[in-house]
Specification:
The chain has 15 helices and 24 strands. By secondary structure, it is of the alpha/beta class. Helix 2 packs parallel to helix 3, helix 5 packs parallel to helix 7 (178-188) and helix 11 (320-327) runs parallel beside helix 13 (383-395). The two termini are 31 Å apart. The relative contact order is 0.15. The protein binds uridine-diphosphate-N-acetylglucosamine (UD1). Uridine-diphosphate-N-acetylglucosamine binds next to helix 2, helix 6 and helix 7.
């Protein structure tokens, strides 16, 4: 990657745009969700285990995806895009170094570690560093790779890994980490031994990665929180269509609960949002779910409810912030318990600036519903916190100006277009 590539990505990420909304605003109509960012990222990393061409369809246009494709280019791939299709093929041998400049911009770039290990490479991957929503260590990734025979040294901000002795192993994850499950599953494809991973993450995006690895030729048996993987020495190519983004869909479902709304959200896997749908029904929403849509209508008065985030199929931590924004204007008290990340309440301060009544006690936010929020200048501190502010902007009276929108562009393709289509007064400046 040359400096102009890096500057181009930095420019997109540092885009100065503010997002503005004028509320209160009910939403009406239909929205079609795009492909899943969190499914595409590990799949792109996994393309490194094959020399053959991979065609990945339904890829959203997002900064995080651009960063991952730049990383793949550095690691020897040629990547091209035609609308929402990415073509990935081998151009040169992998140099085996994932540089800090890119890894620091995208935590998920740590997923190339498993893929490079699968190729028995000696590799050097920059540590992703801290993250605003918590410490987010990678100890579970490294412990698993060590068990698979990799020699690991952490020094100078890099993980140095020698995977020449990679072998199958039985590994029980300390926590069902999504990233660690994905990294270890990809690494396991690098050996013809059998690897068994227990206590794995069961998020649908993990399943999607398993399907992709199978399409390349890996033998994978997945049942509940256990997966067994048998790799091979050479892999084929693949033509793979990625699932739709359930978190993007969930955000629109929550937006559809704003007073007076009637919204149909179309996407491939509505059953993945059962935990959210159950909670919104408790709040009084009327929800009809089909095989490829969720249709939500709001009640006259939304009741508050409690949620506790948990690994899938529990309530998704990625929807905690948008849900909290909704609860800030509902009837009564709602308790929001965040159990997956230790510091995922950065949006609370911003919601309070708009008039929300929220008190934090360790990992619980106590939200006392207020009659109305008021538009204010606020900042998106992280991706889902940014989505929460968009929901708050729909609920609030007056204009909400959201800055630091680079976080929002990382995860929501054409969010302005989608909300406009649903009748929101939303624009960028
Ligand atoms: C992925 C998702 C993110 C989602 C999260 C949980 C992607 C690109 N991102 O992130 O949107 O919020 O899953 O559903 O798919 N942990 C450790 N040690 C480790 C790994 C994780 O302690 O080695 C902890 C983390 O600090 C965190 C928790 O485990 O508190 C969950 O992290 P993890 O499931 O790994 O999330 P990510 O894969 O980073």
């Amino acid at each position: 990657m040359n400096n102009s590539d890096l500057n181009r990505i930095k420019h997109t990420i540092n885009s100065p745009d503010s997002l503005l909304l004028k509320g209160p605003c009910a939403l009406n109509g239909t929205v079609r969700v795009s492909g899943s960012k969190n499914a595409v990222l590990p799949i792109l990393a996994a393309t490194l285990i094959t020399d053959k061409k991979c065609t990945i369809r339904n890829v959203p246009e997002l900064t995080d995806i651009s960063i991952m494709t730049e990383l793949l280019k550095i690691l020897g791939k040629k990547v091209s895009r035609e609308e929402n299709v990415l073509y990935v093929e081998k151009e040169k041998d992998t140099p085996g170094v994932a540089p800090y400049e890119l890894v620091r911009m995208l935590r998920a770039s740590i997923l190339v570690m498993g893929a490079l290990a699968a190729g028995r490479n000696s590799l050097k991957v920059a540590l992703p560093g801290g993250c605003l929503i918590g410490e987010r260590p990678i100890d579970i990734h490294l412990k698993g790779l060590k068990k698979m025979g990799a020699e690991i040294k952490v020094s100078g901000g890099f993980v140095e890994l020698n995977a020449s002795g990679l072998k199958g192993a039985e590994i029980t994850l300390d926590f069902p980490s999504v990233g660690a499950t994905e990294n270890l599953a990809i690494a396991a494809c690098g050996t013809t031994d059998k690897t068994v991973l227990e206590n794995i993450a069961c998020e649908p995006e993990v399943d999607e990665l398993f399907s992709f690895l199978k399409s390349l030729g890996a033998k994978i048996k997945h049942s509940g929180s256990t997966v067994s993987i048998k790799g091979r020495s050479r892999y084929g190519g693949s033509d793979f269509t990625v699932m739709d983004d359930r978190i993007q869909a969930g955000t629109y479902v929550i937006a559809g609960a704003v007073k007076g709304s009637d919204v149909r959200i179309e996407f491939s896997s509505p059953e993945t949002l059962d935990a959210l749908v159950e909670k919104l029904c408790e709040c009084g929403c009327r929800i009809d779910t089909g095989s490829d849509y969720i249709h939500i209508k709001t009640p006259e008065k939304l009741k508050g409810t409690d949620i506790r985030t948990a690994p899938y199929p529990g309530f998704p931590t990625d929807l905690q912030a948008p849900f909290m924004a909704l609860m800030s204007c509902s009837e009564g008290v709602s308790l929001i318990n965040e159990t997956v990340f230790e510091n995922r309440f950065l949006h609370c301060g911003e919601l309070k600036r708009m008039g929300a009544d929220i008190e934090i006690k360790k990992d619980i936010a106590i939200v006392q519903g207020v009659e109305k929020l008021t538009g204010a200048p606020v900042a998106a501190k992280d991706l889902r916190g940014g989505a929460a502010l968009v929901i708050a902007g729909l609920l609030a009276e007056g204009v909400t100006r959201i800055s630091e929108t680079e976080h929002i562009w990382r995860g929501y393709e054409d969010i302005v277009g989608h909300f406009k289509k649903l009748g929101a007064e939303i624009w960028t400046e």
